[in-house]
């Protein structure tokens, strides 16, 4: 549903702009040109993801060779 006061042209533009977005459970995703769904990450989660990936319970780098 478009916001109140939108013209018919603005409503059409809104439909075109949101066509690639989906809400799955409570997360927002966008379908990319490569046909891959990418999850939108809100600002408050952006610092948490790298911290968990590198320092969390299962975090770290698992390369085959050790660099000294």
Can you tell me about this structure?
- With 68 residues, this protein is of the alpha+beta class.
- It has a domain at 20-55.
- The protein is 34% helix and 18% strand.
- It has helices at residues 8-18, 43-46, 48-55, and strands at 21-24, 27-31, 37-39.
- The protein has a three-stranded antiparallel beta sheet, with no helix packed on it.
- Strand 2 and strand 3 form a beta hairpin.
- The longest helix has 11 residues, at 8-18.
- The radius of gyration is 19 Å and the shape is elongated.
- The model has no long low-confidence stretch (mean pLDDT 83).
Quick description:
This protein has 68 residues and is α+β, with helices and mostly antiparallel strands.
Fill in the keyword field for this structure:
3 helices
* Helix/strand/pairing category: alpha+beta
Helix proportion: 25-40%
Instruction: Enumerate the spans where pLDDT stays under 50 for 5 or more consecutive residues.
Output: none
Cα shape: elongated
- Say how many strands there are: 3
Percent strand: 15-25%
Radius of gyration: 19 Å
Run of helices and strands: HEEEHH
Q: Quote the distance from N terminus to C terminus.
A: 58 Å
How can the largest sheet be summarized? 3 strands, antiparallel
Give the mean pLDDT.
83
- The main sheet orders its strands as 1-2-3
Secondary structure tally, helices:
3
Please specify the SSE layout and strand pairing.
Layout: H1 8-18, E1 21-24, E2 27-31, E3 37-39, H2 43-46, H3 48-55
Antiparallel strand pairs: 1-2, 2-3
């Amino acid at each position: 549903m478009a916001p109140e006061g939108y013209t018919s042209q603005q409503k059409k533009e809104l439909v075109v702009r949101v066509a690639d977005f989906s809400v799955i459970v409570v997360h927002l995703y966008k379908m990319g040109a490569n046909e891959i769904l990418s999850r939108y990450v809100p600002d408050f989660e952006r610092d948490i993801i790298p911290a968990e990936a590198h320092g969390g319970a299962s975090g770290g780098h698992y390369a085959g060779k050790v660099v000294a």
